[in-house]
Design a protein that fits this description.
Length: 165
């Protein structure tokens, strides 16, 4: 069985790496690209939001541009760690991923933040899943949520990942 794993793995890599990158797109960010012939796009940028405990809203910038609304679920605090499920809606109005322009994406994630440097909560490696509006997508968030004007909250999160329109 083990002697078949290496050839199958190499075959999988060879099949997954087929396809040519798009041409004539010198204006794209360094990380932008189409993942082979899958029609999926690597994206990166930032979310800047403000609001209260019930909802945050703000702007999306980077490879995807538009507005974002985050509706958090119940809060759970364990020591310095904050857990909170959340749902987001992205209204995409611009950016360099043309198939997404004009689309509405719905995303879900479990917010995990470390409050070791309060009033700043560090957000590291939060996994986000596109559940509607695209075939699929997985992103990762990193950044800071600022509680210094609590109950008013501000948040700057960087996103990186893949979206398949």
């Amino acid at each position: 069985m083990i002697k078949y794993i290496t050839p199958l793995t190499l075959l999988g890599f060879a099949l997954g790496c087929r396809g040519e990158p798009p041409t004539g797109m010198q204006h794209l960010t360094r990380n932008f690209g189409i993942a082979g012939s899958s029609g999926c796009y690597t994206v990166s940028g930032a979310l800047d939001q403000a609001g209260g405990l019930a909802a945050l809203s703000g702007a999306i910038s980077g490879d995807v541009e538009g507005t974002v609304v985050t509706v958090p679920g119940p809060l759970l605090v364990r020591g310095a760690v904050v857990f909170r499920p959340a749902e987001q809606t992205w209204e995409i109005t611009g950016g360099i991923v043309e198939p997404l322009i004009g689309q509405t994406l719905h995303l879900e994630f479990d917010f995990v933040g470390i409050g070791a440097e309060l009033p700043l909560v560090r957000v590291t490696d939060v996994k986000v899943r596109v559940v509607e509006g695209a075939r699929m997508g997985n992103l990762t968030y990193h950044g800071i949520t600022d509680l210094s004007d609590f109950p008013d909250i501000t948040s700057h999160l960087e996103y990186h990942g893949v979206i398949c329109p």
